[in-house]
Design goal:
Strand order of the largest sheet: 9-8-10-11-7-12-13
Number of helices: 14
CATH topology of the largest domain: Rossmann fold
CATH class of the largest domain: Alpha Beta
Order of helices and strands: HEEEHHEEEHHEHEEHEHEHHEEHHHH
CATH superfamily of the largest domain: P-loop containing nucleotide triphosphate hydrolases
Number of strands: 13
Number of domains: 2
Shape: globular
Strand content: 25-35%
Largest sheet: 7 strands, mixed
Helix content: 25-40%
Structural class: alpha/beta
């Protein structure tokens, strides 16, 4: 048993999402979105390095020492998997770990809207799950892939950095590939994927032009592609994909994206005030013919209006989703106000409306 495993067990017992190990500080847990220090001695750089190197593969250690940061995965059988990142900072080595539960929760257990489950039955196209870091994108994607795994007879290929949720083959065959271990990059894995007979491809992060271009190509050639982006809402997701390409290619990209995109799910996590835990508010964009035309014509600023009028297709704006959980009494008015888009809609819920100089 590695020395650091004791902290992972504490993390699991406390229901923490993240563990921070930083030279010159005590260990810190993120519990329901807030940082709490662990009653333990201050971590010295050399001691922490020895503790971390005990669980990191030699090739990852070599890469870390060459570059100053590295991602990796770690698993404690029977407990959980962990997505780790090592990095150097002013006072020495540091690491952050995110817990990936061993049990994959279903769409129903997560309380996701019914339309999310339907995404698992799409024959082809691209579905994007977006949101800020720590918003639960991986958990939502895992629930959708789990639904695919249970209900279809296909080949699922995941490309991640590192591997997070591990899906055991059920009705489907599932192959997991880790960037840096099983393949050189997301782009090289996607190029290879087209020769590996997949029906469903999960791209852990669409972070560069080549990866996005290959993902769209895969969606256009009859595959169902799931991917994640770090964007704040559906409209920004569409803009981000188009704007990453050179200006002379953007008209063609708009057309390709309009044809390949099936849905964008953008989410935020909130601390619940009624019970211990957190809940998600989801913005959902379904690529109806009207939405495709807006993308093709470069009128993404009208997407919000389409979501307002497309509720019968399962669409909803982020503000409507936040308002729903607020009115259920699950989240605080202040939290809702901070994370909403149109602040004016939420001012009436506040006891003392804050003065936000950026809105003046």
């Amino acid at each position: 048993m590695a020395q650091i495993d004791a902290f992972f067990k504490l993390m699991n017992e406390q229901g923490a999402s993240d563990l921070h190990m930083v030279s010159g500080q005590q260990p810190i847990l993120r519990i329901r979105g807030e940082m709490e220090r662990v009653k333990y001695k201050t971590l010295e750089s050399d001691d922490l390095k020895a503790m971390l190197y005990e669980i990191v593969a030699e090739d990852k250690v070599k890469l870390f020492e060459e570059t100053g940061d590295v991602d990796f995965g770690y698993e404690i059988p029977g407990l959980a998997r962990y997505r780790g990142n090592l990095f150097m900072q002013k006072y020495g080595i540091a690491a952050v770990f995110r817990e990936i539960p061993s049990d994959i929760l279903s769409c129903e257990q997560l309380g996701l809207p019914k339309v999310i489950r339907k995404l698992a039955s799409l024959p082809k196209g691209m579905v994007l799950v977006t949101g800020p870091t720590g918003s639960g994108k991986s958990t939502t994607l895992a629930a959708i892939v789990d639904e695919v795994n249970k209900t279809r007879k296909d080949h699922i290929l995941t490309i991640e950095d590192p591997i997070e949720f591990v899906h055991k083959s059920q009705s489907c065959i599932v192959n997991h590939r880790e960037v840096g271990t099983h393949t050189e990059s997301f782009a090289s894995a996607l190029r290879g994927a087209l020769r590996e007979d997949p029906d469903i491809i999960l791209v852990g992060e669409m972070r560069d032009l080549e990866t996005i271009a290959l993902a769209m190509e895969a969606a256009m050639t009859g595959h169902l592609v799931f991917g994640t982006l770090h964007t704040l809402n559906a409209m920004k997701t569409v803009d981000r994909i188009i704007e990453i390409f050179p200006a002379n290619q953007q008209a063609q990209v708009r057309s390709t994206l309009a044809d390949s995109l099936k849905a964008v799910v953008s989410q935020n996590l909130f601390k619940r005030v009624d019970v211990k835990g957190r809940c998600a508010a989801l913005e959902i964009l379904i690529a109806t013919p009207a939405v495709r035309n807006l993308i093709r014509e470069g009128k993404t600023y009208q997407i919000a209006s389409s979501m307002q009028t497309g509720k019968k297709y399962g669409m909803q704006t982020l503000d409507d989703a936040i308002l729903e959980v607020l009115e259920k009494g699950w989240i605080s008015p202040d939290d809702a106000y901070i994370n909403c888009i149109e602040k004016a809609k939420f001012v009436s819920y506040l006891k003392t409306p804050p003065t936000d100089f950026t809105d003046i």
